[in-house]
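Structure Section — protein described below
Tokens — whole-number codes for backbone shape
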Amino acid sequence: MDFATFLDAFLMGVVEGATEFLPISSTGHMILLGELIGFQGPPGKTFEICIQLGAVLAVVLVFRATLWRLAMLAWRPGPERFYAQNLVLAFLPAAVIGALLHGTITELLFNPWVVCAALILGGIAIIAIERWRPDPSIHSIPQMGPRAALLIGFGQALAMIPGTSRSGATIITALLVGVERRTAAEFSFVLAIPTMFAATAYSLYKARADLDLSSLGQIGIGFATAFLVALIVVRWLMKVISRIGFTPFGWYRIALGCTMLTFLMLR
């Protein structure tokens, strides 16, 4: 593996880890960065699929105590059971819709023009919802209830459109149903664990013919980089999100989308 291949894999890992759990679209950033640097990964997008696992494992590490409590206590009455029920309900819409439409969405929508449009529209939505959202009435995940959990799940399903952002869609929907910011962020992060594991397993199964041992070094660099960067980002966001809100991410999305749109038109 030459230095250029190493650098490309490292940059893609940094972008995946930095953007997967921020409401700015990791898929969108990966597509745009790939266009900019002419990234040539293994066939079948196996590189992008595999390094997502690095990012989600960072969330497993950050929320390991919560996950352990759920594993031990969700079977008995109590807040852990409600927490687990809400996760299941929020997971279902994306799982069903993704299984039905994954191929169609990948074929029709995975291009930089769709990403730019989704970044801009999503940025406007974040700014508007942060300004006019209802006062928070839900301050913990067990308090959500089935209706709120399902609505957040349908919000997550929208993130199959590249550039939308899985975390952005779930967080925005959570804010709309009255969830306070930090709880919305935590639910989005923990919900990513079953969602991304399922999506990665499904995508790897579909791309199994393209798996190649010769690309393991490139995948390993991206995987490790995405894990370390995501670990830093998730811990940072959980500390500051109640104070800074999501509006800065909305403006960032609009600026990036407009910049990339200009670049694509001039190119």
